[in-house]
Structure to design on (591 residues):
């Protein structure tokens, strides 16, 4: 082992540990690792920045715009709402939901699909008397099944495709992955409608938990007549420095003020709503001129009238809020909403609101103004899972244009008339020319953090390849699987990719494994396509944890799930996917 190989491996291992411990946002961690390799001279700037011009990465950027145009057409909501049916047979409704969801995810980004349909499915479940926890994990899994069906189903497929093109290989065709993923997806859907359905828990959703425990964290107080607090600001009254309570709303003459700034002045007879640790309510009782209401029957529905509304939001992996407390994030001033409660791992966190350190998957109950959902629906910091009342819907003509453009793009790529990148580029140009989407709208839908992660990860992959680290690791894997031959090597690659996907991110897992697999294929003198297909499926088939794939993370809190629920349901599914994938890959590309 040379010093250069050792250094590259040291940086990569440090990057993986940082990703697993979530010490910062994934895109920042991977970019930081790439920067170290550039500064140290291991990678030249030209090679390190190849990821930023990679065809797969650029195609992902274009597809964000196309998918955004289709999403705003409003057609998708009607599809799933109708597919769920009457609800007389929950398992039949589950099947009816999963098939169209998988179909949509084959051509559109699955993350916005899960965000869009989580409130739709949850509302349907509540109307039919079915526990939403029986449907939300299947909702996430169905989009994962569908994402592996086509070249454009997930960014991971396009990243691997882009790497193959740079190596002078053919790359994936539009439906090549379906040779494996279609049988695997069918097995997955059957599993979820039978064994998986039995294993799914019947739990209260985060919404129900917040509502039922509202007496445990909501308190109300009144500014008395002739109170010395009258005319003082919130700050001057000492209501910003309470050790366990957090002011979220002021009600004055029937008018509600949510997300109250520190300079807001109090009046006589103002009603103040607090959230937090009620055992510290003695602080309020000690404030002269403030009467605390004891034995209150305050409910969440009492908070939202007129301009105030309650919204649920799930913290994302890419969020700038991760590892910050609510106070440190300045949530109220930055987002214009007050945090009422935080739900994590099937329970509400009973701490002072400002001191809660936020993690990916946390579900926040927010009290905000009516326009909050529309203003922050495209935020990278959290996924809004409450229904958005005023949807950003374009006119019918533009809806048809968006759908026809998508069909045209898929057809051009599927029949090899144009490469995928050129087909996506043409689609975006048409959307702009027809004014179906604006430049401002396009900017909202492009996930720049995902693109940075992909581009940086490609640079890391190049470092593994050029330094010889990939070849060294490949030799080690071949030794491990020596007794099982080529099929053993495929199993090892699939298994390791799955493990990486569960603990870091799918794109980073794929980019790390691709150069290693190419070295394995070269040393074994077999078609590298066998390994690339296995990696593409394994990098998306993340079922055993809520943190490995953003779709699982989105339904984590809203479904009232625990971490162990994913392991109980997902590990058998991971094994089924491994068996189906390795078997088909072996007989199609190896034998």
């Amino acid at each position: 082992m040379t010093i250069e190989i050792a250094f590259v491996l040291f940086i990569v291992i440090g990057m993986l540990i940082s990703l697993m411990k979530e010490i910062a946002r994934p895109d920042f961690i991977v970019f930081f690792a790439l920067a170290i390799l550039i500064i140290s001279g291991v990678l030249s700037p030209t090679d390190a920045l190849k990821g930023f011009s990679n065809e797969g990465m650029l195609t992902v950027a274009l597809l964000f715009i196309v998918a955004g145009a289709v999403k705003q057409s409003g057609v998708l909501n009607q599809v799933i709402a109708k597919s769920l049916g009457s609800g007389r047979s929950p398992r039949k409704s589950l099947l009816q939901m999963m098939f169209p969801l998988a179909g949509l995810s084959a051509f559109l980004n699955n993350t916005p699909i899960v965000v869009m349909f989580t409130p739709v499915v949850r509302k349907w479940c509540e109307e039919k008397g079915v526990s939403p926890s029986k449907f939300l994990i299947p909702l996430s899994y169905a989009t994962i099944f569908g994402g592996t069906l086509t070249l454009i189903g997930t960014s991971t497929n396009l990243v691997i495709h882009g790497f193959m093109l740079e190596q002078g290989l053919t790359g994936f065709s539009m439906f090549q992955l379906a040779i494996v993923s279609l049988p695997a997806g069918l097995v997955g859907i059957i599993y979820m409608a039978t064994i998986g359905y039995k294993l799914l828990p019947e739990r209260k959703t985060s919404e129900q938990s917040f509502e039922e425990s509202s007496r445990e964290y909501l308190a109300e107080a009144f500014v008395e007549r002739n109170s010395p607090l009258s005319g003082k600001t919130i700050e001057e009254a000492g209501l910003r420095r309470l050790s366990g309570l957090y002011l979220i709303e002021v009600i004055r003459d029937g008018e509600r003020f949510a997300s109250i700034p520190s300079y807001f002045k109090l009046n006589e007879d103002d009603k103040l709503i607090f959230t937090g640790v009620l055992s510290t309510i003695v602080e309020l009782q000690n404030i002269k001129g403030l009467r605390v209401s004891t034995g209150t029957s305050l409910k969440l529905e009492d908070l939202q009238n007129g301009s105030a509304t309650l919204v649920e939001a799930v913290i994302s992996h890419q969020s700038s809020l991760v590892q910050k407390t609510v106070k440190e994030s300045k949530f109220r001033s930055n987002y214009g909403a007050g945090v009422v409660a935080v739900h994590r791992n099937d329970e509400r966190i009973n701490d002072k609101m400002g001191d809660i350190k936020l993690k990916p998957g946390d579900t926040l109950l927010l009290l905000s103004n009516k326009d909050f959902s529309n203003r922050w629906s495209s935020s990278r910091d959290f996924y809004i899972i409450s229904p958005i009342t005023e949807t950003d819907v374009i006119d019918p003509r533009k809806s048809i244009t968006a759908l026809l453009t998508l069909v045209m793009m898929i057809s051009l790529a599927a029949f090899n008339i144009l490469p995928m990148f050129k087909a996506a580029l043409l689609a975006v140009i048409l959307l702009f020319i027809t004014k179906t989407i604006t430049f401002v709208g396009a900017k909202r839908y492009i996930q720049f953090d995902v693109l940075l992660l992909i581009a940086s990860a490609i640079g890391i992959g190049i470092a593994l390849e050029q330094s010889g680290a990939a070849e060294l690791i490949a030799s080690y894997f071949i030794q491990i699987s020596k007794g099982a031959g080529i099929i053993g090597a495929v199993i090892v690659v699939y298994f390791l990719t799955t493990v990486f996907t569960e603990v870091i991110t799918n794109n980073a897992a794929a980019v790390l494994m691709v150069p290693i697999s190419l070295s394995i294929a070269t040393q074994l003198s077999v078609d590298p396509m066998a390994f690339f297909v296995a990696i593409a499926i394994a990098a998306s088939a993340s079922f055993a944890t809520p943190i490995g794939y953003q779709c699982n993370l989105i339904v984590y809190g809203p479904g009232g799930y625990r971490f162990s629920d994913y392991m109980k349901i997902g590990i058998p599914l991971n094994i089924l996917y491994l068996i189906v994938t390795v078997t088909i890959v072996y007989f199609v590309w190896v034998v």
Remarks:
- The first strand starts at residue 218 and ends at 223.
- The two ends are 34 Å apart (CA to CA).
